[in-house]
Amino acid sequence: MTNPFELAIQAADELRVRSGVDAYDLAVVLGSGWKEGAVALGPPFADVPSGTLRGFVTPTVVGHAGQILSVKVAGANVALVSGRVHLYEGNTADQVAHSVRTLIAAGAKTVILTNACGGIDPTKGPGSVVLIKDHLNLTATSPLEGLAPPEPFGSRFVDLTDLYSKRLRAAALLAAPELTEGVYAGFRGPHYETPAEITMARTMGATLVGMSTVLEAIAARHMGAEVLGLSLVSNFAAGTTQAPLSHLEVLEAGRTASASLGGLLARLIPVL
Ligand code: 8IG
Question: Which domains does the chain have, with CATH numbers?
Answer without folding.
Answer: 4-271 (3.40.50.1580)
